[in-house]
What we know:
This protein is mostly helical. 53% of the residues lie in helices and 11% in strands.
Amino acid sequence: MDLAIYYKKIREVEAGLPEPCVVVSRETENGGRAGVRTEVPRRLAARMIVQGQARAATKDEVREFREAQAAAKRAADELAAARNVQVTVIPSSELRNFKNSGRAKE
Length: 106
């Protein structure tokens, strides 16, 4: 393999990719799974495409990937917020005193 041609192909492919780029993996001989979507820098995406390990994602695949990432972020944020819920336990006698003192609004 001529390295000059190899790197020229990488530069040509890289020029046509957005930053950051979503790629879809292809099945490889060493156990790579097909169909896994990943966001990578443009240079790495170009190298993976030239080596035949991945292909550039279509617009629909990119949209679905972004939606899945946003849903995962929302779920993680909700879980983090649920962990931060603070509960104060007070005896019922103190609650009655608090209500009877007029400080509590019902």
